[in-house]
Design goal:
The structure is a homotrimer of 266-residue chains. The first copy, chain A, starts with a helix and ends with a strand. In chain A, α1 packs across α9. The longest helix of chain A has 21 residues. Helix content of chain A is 52%, strand content 13%. Chain A has a single domain, classed as Ribokinase (UDP-N-acetylmuramoyl-L-alanine:D-glutamate ligase, 3-Layer(aba) Sandwich). Chain A has a nine-stranded mixed sheet, sandwiched between helices. By secondary structure, chain A is an alpha/beta fold. Chains A and B meet through α5 and α10 of A and α2, β2 and α10 of B.
Chain lengths: 266, 266, 266
């Protein structure tokens, strides 16, 4: 097996060199942070959700990131339009099913987007599990299942959906139903900053724009974010300073540091 | 009269232990900060505004916070749906009538939500006064009445509406028309950071989720935010660093520090 | 020619004294930062986009700032309503055509707003050039033309539209087709923070509220933002801390410092 840390570092270098446009249709809470995290990473973010422009916008994009955090039906329609166009053009798609399982609207929206076909789904354990069992319920957007409980279900789900999944938590799990990668980077204080999961999904989009393997791209992005969070937490006094320092570290962290610091294992 | 600082500290401890879900239908400007302030406090925030899901979401919630800062009629409809369901379930409701009095849309929206019945209204003096006299006008979202001018009007309004009100300013006033509590915590630099009033309303929601007395819960939340702002301002160079440091302090401030530092008086 | 740095400083003092209300109809990504930058500058921001209230809200305003960053047709309709009312009342208008040229929706929206008549357009070179030649395309919201390439085109465009334009980049250019001002303040790290261009447009609104000459007001605002960014970058470790420090410096920077530090040339 190749050195996955090395590959993560090479992808980061490629993002900074190519500056791929990442088209986000995402929630209101995290738009500012998502855009800033993508900029810090080296990518070029755009937010566009109008049905009248999403197909045109996604045609310029290196990846499409769909996040249902503050959805309404009209936003879901735009996501479906954008996803359909992205599929047609071969643009990779990440789905972040924020709060799926908590309400029928969110679960059904996630399933409709999945039916179009996406490259990878990233969520916490409850969100991802809800896609396989629409009857399960999450408490808001927090996870009520452990990553361990979710591991087998994640593999089963990835196989049944034919879609790779990334389940993030204390240890992140990425699987396409065959391969499983675990990412041990990260810091507990991330859970006290809103939108770190959404940032993870957006960064997966950036890595997918330069690495066609969704399992490896997702693990690379999660290692990048997790390593940056470790370094940022070291100099933070709480969630406010972590949110700020994380952007600084995402910007200054080098491909070499990522190659050395990534803790990705099969 | 019991020690209100002590009770504020006990409520903070209860929030951190129970982590109540706080359902926010709020404005675009402050969503990120509101979510982060609730997380720092120990609560679990969710933002959801679609008519298709607000009733389901509020059924999981410890409190509902309605904020009309960037409203449109369709958002008001969702707020009314959510409020009606919350009333049916006994979920406490906070209304933040941002800019009420400035435009007819905002004043009328506030009055329609009030007619459903809420646990408490929090605003600046002009906003709160506009609810009693729809002819008064505010200059945007800033207060043009002093807290002193508003005190008697606040008591009258609370009685006529049958709804407790919190009027925030240099000294905060909370009254249900019978009791009056004043909170002397806070810092002038808060007025130079957007959304500190919205954060106050969200934190009142968190305290209402663990303390059924709206007057005491609001005073506790305002003392918590004000004390944190005092400590944050001590280490800030301007409004940018205050916004960040405030989240850090909300996270690290202990129940004991709150009990000691709260300046709540009858 | 008068000392333009001195005039910029006088305008900043006037903003802090008069605290003009700046009505923003802007994009979701930058609303928090825009509001905070206007507060730090000394102005009073309000965000309101409902068709039912924009005409009433703009009647209180010292300036109207229209930004099409995350537009939909219904938001464009509100912008047209607000702009029409602002014109009737003599309230100055700034248009920020974010991503114009990238999609037809954005280009057409910009052209429709321009047809109502605005005081000034601020964008990067690609965005501004797209208004003169709807066939040109931008890559998302990034500029693909240099300021030098855009200078002559900017003058031509300002003349043909009868509207002053501000083209921001490494050196900012402001022209009404007759006069040309260049602003050499700024820092490259600004390009790694989302919404610094949007902040520029909002600050131009604040300066227009106190200085009726759009070319001079825009140059003053750009010098103010650029000088603050220089000072903020000196104490920042990356884009996260720059975003925070910029708000601090906008707040503490004095009219005298602006008068001395502004690098505006004809």
């Amino acid at each position: 097996m190749e050195n996955l840390g090395q590959r993560a570092g090479e992808s980061l270098a490629a993002i900074r060199q190519k500056q791929p446009l990442i088209h986000n249709i995402t929630n209101f809470v995290v738009m500012n942070n998502t855009a800033n995290a993508l900029l810090a990473c080296g990518a070029s973010p755009v937010m566009a959700h109008a049905a009248e422009e999403v197909e045109q916008m996604v045609s310029f994009a290196g990846a499409l990131v769909l996040n249902i955090g503050t959805l309404t039906p009209v936003w879901v329609d735009s996501m479906l339009l954008a996803a359909t166009k992205a599929r047609e053009l071969g643009v990779p798609i990440v789905l972040d099913p924020v709060g799926s399982g908590a309400t029928d609207l969110r679960t059904q929206a996630s399933l409709r987007i999945l039916a179009v076909g996406v490259s990878l789904v990233r969520g916490n354990a409850s969100e991802v599990l809800s896609l396989g069992d629409a009857a399960s319920q999450t408490k808001g957007v927090d996870s009520t299942h452990s990553v361990d409980e979710a591991a087998q279900a994640g593999m089963d789900l990835a196989r049944s959906l034919g879609t790779p999944v990334a389940i993030t938590g204390a240890v992140d799990l990425v699987t396409d139903g065959q391969r499983v990668l675990r990412v041990a980077n990260g810091h507990p204080l991330m859970t006290k900053v809103t939108g770190t999961g959404c940032t993870a999904s957006a960064l997966i989009g950036a890595f997918l724009a330069v690495d066609p393997d969704p399992v490896v791209a997702a693990a690379s992005a999660l290692a990048f974010l997790g390593l940056a969070a470790e370094k940022a937490a070291d100099i933070s006094k709480g969630p406010g300073s972590l949110q700020m320092n994380l952007l600084d570290v995402l910007y200054v962290l080098t491909p070499e540091e990522l190659a050395r610091g990534a803790r990705i294992s099969a």
